[in-house]
Amino acid sequence: MDNKKLRIGVIGVGYVAQNNFLPVLPKFDDVEFVGLMAKNLDNAKRAQKLCGAENTVASIEEFVNLGLDCAFVLTPKQCHAEQISFLLNAGIDVYSEKPMATTLKDADHIADLAEKTGRKLMIGFNRRYAPICQKAKEVYSSIVPDVIVAQKNRPQTEYRATLENAIHIVDLMRYYGGEVRNVNAISKFSDPYYETYTTAQMEFENGASGILVADRSSGQWEETIEIHGGNQSVLINMPDSVTVTDAKEKHTMEMTPLAMGWARSEDKLGFTNSIRHFLDCVRNDQTPLTNAADAYKTHELLDRVLRSAGLPAMD
């Protein structure tokens, strides 16, 4: 693609869009924010003030007719499969929030559709792009970890809590440890759609061991990853710090001082970097890191966790 500005559009104007996308996208000088879509047009017009989008529309047909190069799907998860498919078939590259579908069948169909249409589909596993997670990846880019302990805890449950939130941490476990051979999980619940916790032991194909903890009765939100192996250790405390330890020293990188005290969630949690990565892939005709085929593997692994724990799977 030449140096002309990318014509972009966004579907969805909820919390994630308003906090982590609409304030970020106008900052890039190589994009033209052409359109914003929401079923409630008044909501789209209110959100327009955050981003300066040129047009607001209420239907996906109107959205596609704006002449877009790429689009961001930031709607609730039950909308993703239909909207992504429509956009891919219309010849538009897509960035979608996770999950790309609520069933493995739909996720497989979408990944296949992206390949058949030749369009780019990137799934927003933004944690991979967070500066502290990228720092950890630098340590374990050539070293195979022995043990990964990953926790994503919150003080209260929600509908399908493990599917809704643990998918991020499961994706990071794959990012650092590779593919998983065996999964053994347990969960506590009175209603399987509102579980109290899920824990899982994973055996990676390279011999590493992983432990997942996804609790919904903790004191506060907590997200941590410990990685050990190769006589090195990494501790990630999302979204603020990463500590790397070897036999000689311990070094901690903290986000807030790096940003002169102005570090924001879109930067610390990797949204800004993930958006930039997608735009660069569209412009330079490259495959995104979290492309549909790779993202499907995370969805499939999470399905195995759910099944092993006795929770509703991604049927």
3D architecture notes:
With 315 residues, the protein is an alpha/beta fold. 37% of the residues lie in helices and 27% in strands. It has helices at 15-20, 41-51, 60-64, 77-89, 104-117, 131-139, 161-177, 255-258, 265-268, 271-284, 292-309, and strands at 6-11, 31-37, 55-57, 70-73, 93-97, 121-124, 147-153, 180-188, 197-204, 209-215, 222-229, 232-237, 241-245, 250-254. An eight-stranded mixed sheet has the order 8-9-10-7-11-12-13-14. A six-stranded parallel sheet has the order 3-2-1-4-5-6, sandwiched between helices. Helix 4 (77-89) packs parallel to helix 5 (104-117). The longest helix is centred in the last third of the chain and has 18 residues, at 292-309. The chain is globular, with a radius of gyration of 20 Å.
How are the elements arranged and paired?
Layout: E1 6-11, H1 15-20, E2 31-37, H2 41-51, E3 55-57, H3 60-64, E4 70-73, H4 77-89, E5 93-97, H5 104-117, E6 121-124, H6 131-139, E7 147-153, H7 161-177, E8 180-188, E9 197-204, E10 209-215, E11 222-229, E12 232-237, E13 241-245, E14 250-254, H8 255-258, H9 265-268, H10 271-284, H11 292-309
Parallel strand pairs: 1-2, 1-4, 2-3, 4-5, 5-6, 7-10
Antiparallel strand pairs: 7-11, 8-9, 9-10, 11-12, 12-13, 13-14
